[in-house]
Amino acid sequence: MAIAKPGEARPESEKLQTPLQFLKGVGPKLAKTYKKLGLETVYDLLFNLPRDFEDRRQTRKINQLLPGQFNLIKGEVLKTEVSTTRNRFSILKALIGDESGRVQAVWFNQPYLLAYLKVGTRLIVSGKAEVSPYDGQIQLQVRDFEIDTGDNLTIVPKYNLAEGLYPKKYRAVLKSALDGYLKYLPDKKKQAALLSMHLPKDLVAADKARDYLAYDELLSFQLGLLLHRLEQRARQPGLRFIVDPAAMGKFYQQLHFKLTAAQERAVADIFGDFTGGVSMNRLLQGDVGSGKTIVAAAAAFVAVCNGYQAAILAPTEILAWQHYEKLCQLFGGLNCRVDVLTSTVSSEQKRAELQTADIIVGTHALLEEKVVFRKLGFIVIDEQHRFGVHQRLRLIKKGEQPHVLVMTATPIPRSLALTLYGELDRSVIDELPPGRRPVKTHFVPKNKRRQSYEFIREKLAAGRQAYIVCPLVEESAELDLKAAKAEMELLQATVFPEFKIGLIHGKLPGKEKDQIMKAFANRQIQVLVSTTVIEVGIDVPNATLMLIEQVERFGLSQLHQLRGRIGRGEEESYCFLAGNPKTAEAKSRVKAMLETTDGFAIAEIDLKLRGPGDFLGIRQSGLPKFRVADIIKDEKLLLQAREEAKLLIEKDPESARNRWESQRENFEVAKGGLGGSPFN
Ligand code: ADP
Ligand code: MG
């Protein structure tokens, strides 16, 4: 809600922010329980929608109860009794009768309910009908009951409730919120929609109401994103670069391949931003191996030709050095100085040298305060999900309104991208370089392991190389590391004695990692046993084999990233998944890996398996918590809302802004994300 200026009347809608404690029947204690559910104000309560409905329109006559199933009956209490079993269970029984017959309703361990069950009281009871083992009679094991007042809800909304909140009490409190406060909601349609959710008369109408509220929420959110983006653009006149075709011609001559059409489109997008006079804020998304690096390099070269420095931030030492070496080759003949800064080489002298470099590749070491650039005009963040907003901002602050390109291989599904990155421009490389063949993937049960080792041996003998990946997680890092070392020794001693085997893991000093990676790239090592440090970015096309141990311990997107290390050359590549997936989820992950190599398909499955929060990781979650909408299930609504938001802003920016401002505080956002969202 907009805060009223002094002297201005407070809008009535502010009453919706009344703390729940002030509702009838809710004291400070109950308010605390509500708070555990994230419900603090009347507004929260009104927008906490039912997760499901129970249809109580169909009651069953007592003489037609179906054993083994849930039944709903209406009847009168004829008789009650409470007894205690030998092991101290209390059993409450009430004989219920209707015009067709009688049945014993049974409650376990709730003797206090006796007070509600006076003889003659009319009840609506739902429960499972079971044949009693003692007397062969049908009993109703009660799940829920209420007193039949004649105007009971026939469709009962079900809420996610915390311990200590009883559905009936909850609904009563909600009812008093609806009676006393719904009228303060400015939008009449929303009032009606909330009523048809909380006091439903008709399931179809309730469904429609839910979609209406979800749509409304998505629309407000998209308005916020788009308005924020417009504002940013107006506020940030950026560097204007000139793209010199002659210089670019020389750059392309250094490549031993032609850019794919998708790469060309991405380059064109970036150059458009460079020459447009507004700071670029672009996400470059492309599956592993799609060739993002070269796109970044082309862009960096433009910055350099315009007299600026370019910085490339990489998440790991290995990756920084790999980029450095590639760029050195690429820019060797182009009068463009490339340098590298990681924590292992960082020194005063080194930092001073950076002043004279044109393109600087580095790890987190680049972010240190002591690192100063001469004239930083372009920033690339590689594997952006590995960095937080603040790290990105730190680097941006070292430049003069630099253009920013963030790159990711996480193929973020469209609905997520629109929610999370709606404020960013996006280029997608949706095509792999020619000649790539999809990796052949097999599951290896224990008894087939020897066979896969034999297969790998043959390929190694033919000159190929292999990765053997072992899991390593923070919680059991030491044990995992030991296991990886043992694995390496075992392989060397008994499985592949004729080949050279190396071990690489995150705990190794940067220099050593680099040496091992170099030895692998130069084919001095044939088999590289590794923990997941190879996950990002590593590019050794001759490595065409991968064996992943304990596959059940890896996430799906992670497996996809790992597999992306092979299948990079002309030769056929093979990925073996070894392990023992037991849970349904682990099995689904393996199944997905066997069925597809399409990063987007995998991401969609992963998103469904894990939900958006986990999918993105805590680091960058930055996702708003929607009260109603579900960005996976409501993708269609999301797309519609986005279109409408665009139209509204075009037609009447003023009222679009007012609408957003009146809604913004109803959105809660996990901090993080790519930054530049309306909430940061
Ligand atoms: P990623 O997008 O995963 O970062 P890279 O930039 O590491 O991928 O590129 C993967 C490999 O593909 C590299 O060896 C690169 O030289 C090569 N490559 C990139 N673009 C092309 C292309 N258009 N044609 C052929 N090979 C390419
Ligand atoms: Mg890469």
Automatic annotation (TrEMBL):
Residues 273-429 form the Helicase ATP-binding domain. InterPro entries: ATP-dep_DNA_helicase_RecG, DEAD/DEAH_box_helicase_dom, Helicase_ATP-bd, Helicase_C-like, NA-bd_OB-fold, P-loop_NTPase, RecG/Mfd, RecG_dom3_C. It comes from the Bacteria. Keywords: ATP-binding, DNA damage, DNA recombination, DNA repair, DNA-binding, Helicase, Hydrolase, Isomerase, Nucleotide-binding. Residues 448-613 form the Helicase C-terminal domain. It is an enzyme of class 5 (isomerase). One of its GO terms (biological process) is DNA repair. CDD domains: RecG_wedge_OBF (cd04488), SF2_C_RecG (cd18811). Residues 652-680 are annotated as: Disordered. Residues 652-668 have a biased composition (Basic and acidic residues). It catalyses: Couples ATP hydrolysis with the unwinding of duplex DNA by translocating in the 3'-5' direction; ATP + H2O = ADP + phosphate + H(+). SUPFAM superfamilies: Nucleic acid-binding proteins, P-loop containing nucleoside triphosphate hydrolases. Its EC number is 5.6.2.4. Belongs to the helicase family. RecG subfamily. PANTHER family: ATP-DEPENDENT DNA HELICASE HOMOLOG RECG, CHLOROPLASTIC. Plays a critical role in recombination and DNA repair. Helps process Holliday junction intermediates to mature products by catalyzing branch migration. Has replication fork regression activity, unwinds stalled or blocked replication forks to make a HJ that can be resolved. Has a DNA unwinding activity characteristic of a DNA helicase with 3'-5' polarity. This is ATP-dependent DNA helicase RecG. The lineage of its organism: Bacteria, Bacillati, Saganbacteria.
